[in-house]
């Protein structure tokens, strides 16, 4: 089933490229049947702006997100006979203010926001996926004379933030679950028992309320030989009967479907025989999914045999 639940465009995200419509047209050209549009929610402190956003105001970030929703729904209607577009958002959790504001945003827009990709990009208020020096700064913030292992404390803080986010808004899709090891792809959580226990807790909670876990192809373009999450976390999700979906996490039309040939190979290698997709439905699957208008549906048959994947083998 050709699907992605997570994407960005340069029109509404300064570190991406292209317009939202260009992203949609590329997804159509490649043969995607379902494609999720999920720009970042606004941030609420000027200190949290990225360098490329210098000079933007907090009001302009809010206006930019509102404009995204309007454009996304316009495209959803315009191309309805060619592709199913889902309109969602990707979270930020930097301080408590972000979660309170997100709850207000969800209330304000109602079902115009059809689903949430729940992601954490900051630890101790510092971005962890911007570049290596900034990641190192976040890690160093946990160094102290009373803390012999800053990495352990860093990982614990990341997964605690993820858990808080899930409890507050119950995102339909868990975004790049193990982004915390972006710059340490060989790190294994079995070496950090407290972090491992937190992962198990988070996975169990997400499974209980019905979330889908994305296999995110962006890890390949970051130099990994696996998707997010890596195989050790995939195994935990499988042990808990978690449900997987796919995301390209594209940041412009050039990255739509990027590394999807590797993604299907990875999914097959780690034993993922079922995929799930969000779809408009008034009937839920018994989980909390569906409260925003979408429900999880299992992709029928052997998903990897879809002709879409045969084309991806050539790219």
From TrEMBL:
The keyword Chloroplast does not apply. NCBIfam families: hisJ_fam. This is Histidinol-phosphatase. One of its GO terms (cellular component) is cytoplasm. It comes from the Eukaryota. It is an enzyme of class 3 (hydrolase). Keywords: Amino-acid biosynthesis, Histidine biosynthesis, Hydrolase. InterPro entries: Histidinol_P_phosphatase_HisJ, PHP_dom, Pol/histidinol_Pase-like. One of its GO terms (molecular function) is histidinol-phosphatase activity.
